[in-house]
Amino acid sequence: MEVTLPSWLPLSIYAWLVQQVAFHAAGLVFEWCDRTRSLAHLKVRDIDRKPYMQMLPRVLFNQCFILLPSMMLVQAAGYCFSGPKHLHPVRFLLSLPVMAIGHDVVQYLTHRYLLHNPSLRLMRLLQHSLHHSTGASRGISACYMSAPDFFLEIVLPYLVPLALVGGGGADVLFHSLVAGSGAVGGIYEHSGYDFSAVFSPTAKIAGGRGQSSSWTPKVAALIRDFVDNRAHGEHHSRANVSFSDGFGSPGICDTLFGTRWDLVAARRAAAEKEWQAQRKRHMNH
């Protein structure tokens, strides 16, 4: 199905709107689940003290005044959102895993070496601890962070790999898929829910009738590994593990450098002391 945008609507703004709809729709769904406890059996982290409406203004500020102008700028510069209206199917399909790898690399570099740098000057400037004050147990907290943090952790890992694969052309479907899936993935990763339990060998299937053995073990294992949501929770609780490993990420850098949550223990005690002090201050406001 071909989607043709009106001449007055730049593709970068359209992709941003798709991201907004996907992000806030998914965020509201998880918020409803939190309030009704309809999926309480899948809620593995429930430590947030900041309500949804308290986080929303900062989230909207980041999305409207940092992400949107950045997307418009790279389109104006010709790096992204411009070119052929339809990508070749091979290029379309190959660009997706390449972008996932690029996202993994860029986020690892900014996340580990800038946002978690033990330099007190950087810690105080970037205030990444604001994001960690949420506990990653409410979906909307995916974009609850300081402005510099948002640019380094959200904007760059999205736009740099996109530019490196050729900018995605002007393919509306490609940009809709990338923006929408990234938004939903971020919400799920910070929601505190873990759907992998549904596919565990002992899980009950719908209605409690029978076991998940109705799934073939290999298929169930693949789905379980894909939707596993523990890595980012470990990062929020331990700080210095799984910098880019998480839902939808190949986790290449964390595995390669030995920082994946299940490979290392906590480190850098001096940075942790400053970290905890900042978290305590933010949680009291």
UniProtKB/TrEMBL annotation:
GO terms for biological process: lipid biosynthetic process. GO terms for molecular function: iron ion binding; oxidoreductase activity. It comes from the Eukaryota. It is found in: Membrane. Pfam families: FA_hydroxylase. Residues 98-259 form the Fatty acid hydroxylase domain. InterPro entries: Fatty_acid_hydroxylase (IPR006694), Sterol_Desaturase_Related (IPR050307). Keywords: Lipid metabolism, Membrane, Oxidoreductase, Transmembrane, Transmembrane helix. The lineage of its organism: Eukaryota, Fungi, Dikarya, Ascomycota, Pezizomycotina. GO terms for cellular component: membrane. This is Fatty acid hydroxylase domain-containing protein. PANTHER family: STEROL DESATURASE (PTHR11863).
